[in-house]
Amino acid sequence: MAEIADGHYKYQAPIDAYGNGGFRFDDMSHIGSLLCLPSGMHKWTIEDITLLSIDHFKFVFEQAEKIDVFLLGTGQDIAFIDEPVRREFRDRSIILEPMSTGAAVRTYNVLMAEKRAVSAGFIAVDRAK
């Protein structure tokens, strides 16, 4: 199975599997957290939801005009997202939906299949639920 060498795959793709600290999609494997955007799949440098800041969404906000919904996979459990981050999404008219990574992956795949303008950020987890 191939890996994303430079941290970027140029197509947005559904997630085939998650767990063991990474994700599988389009016959590839990615270790670590992942951003799924209109510009493709990107390595995401966040491992702990408690360290999340506006800076982690730079690529998301650059593509805001192509995104209606952003699913945030917060790890094994759902987590509270600080108001400054929520405000940035509202200011760009993007619906922010935080949920566990497993729920976010499943929702992302459904919305992708419906051809919705969905993007996502998934914090990698060790075990799939």
UniProtKB/TrEMBL annotation:
Superkingdom in the source lineage: Bacteria
Gene3D superfamilies to which the protein is assigned, alphabetical: MTH938-like
Record-given protein name: Membrane protein
Native species: Maritalea porphyrae
